[in-house]
Design goal:
single chain; about 230 residues; 4-stranded antiparallel β-sheet; 7 helices; about 30% helix; about 30% strand
Length: about 230
């Protein structure tokens, strides 16, 4: 297994209207093949930790290393484009764009060719097929159901072939049947490809049980609850 991410002594506090300590000396290592669930009650810092791990939020102190590189103000954007991707509960799609155009957006940001027939274009079509949305490729996402939007978001997250996929309550607004589809897609990402890992924040016990390891955050600290062995 390859060490993909290392978080060392992560601390995070918020200071308005008064100081609140959210994370206290959190340490976590993510290896290739890992599927990790982060659980805990609301307000314990789960999403904050995920955003710090994914370089969307800076810690107050501590260090994040991704693919052997220490994350800093001048490296986080390149690391984010090359190594990681995020899936949010609220999708964050461009609703006046088609499903295909949304999936291609990371490639556009990376200044890759997205013309019809290009590598990125063909890959985006393949990803939509993989998530069962080939027939919706040219539909504007505002006309899609919640489950379809989340599947577009997953395809978009996979566009630049990330090593670590972060997901924040990815099925929180979805029905049970659709949630099961989303969960399988996420677990398969890490289990069926080399050098990949999944880190997911969830309140869903079924999704947490599907992951190899479950960590719980309580009072700013993280604790390993379960770890399955092959």
């Amino acid at each position: 297994m390859t060490l993909l991410l290392k978080a060392t002594n992560i601390n995070k506090s918020f200071y308005a209207p008064h100081e609140i300590s959210i994370l206290n000396n959190v340490n976590l290592e993510v290896y290739s093949g890992n599927t990790i669930a982060i659980t805990g009650k609301s307000g314990q810092g789960k999403s904050t930790l995920l955003q710090i791990l994914g370089t969307l939020e800076p810690p107050c102190s501590g260090a994040i290393e991704i693919a052997g590189k220490k994350v800093g103000p001048f490296t986080k954007n390149s690391i984010r484009n090359e190594s990681i991707a995020f899936i949010f509960q609220s999708f964050h799609l461009l609703e006046d764009y088609t499903a295909l155009e949304n999936v291609l957006m990371p490639a556009k940001i990376a200044r890759q060719s997205t013309r019809k027939g290009s590598f990125a274009h063909e890959k985006a079509l393949h990803l939509l097929e993989k998530v069962g949305l080939s027939q919706r490729a040219h539909h504007h996402t505002k006309f899609l159901s919640g489950g379809e939007k989340q599947r577009v978001a997953i395809a978009r997250a996979l566009c630049n072939d990330p090593n670590i996929l972060f997901a924040d309550e990815p099925s929180g607004n979805l029905d049970k049947e659709t949630s099961e589809i989303i969960h399988s897609l996420l677990i398969d990402f890490a289990k069926n490809q080399p050098q990949k890992a999944l880190v997911v924040v969830t309140h869903n016990p079924e999704l947490a049980a599907m992951c190899e390891s479950e960590y719980e955050i309580f009072s700013g600290s993280i604790q390993l609850i379960t770890k399955k062995h092959a």
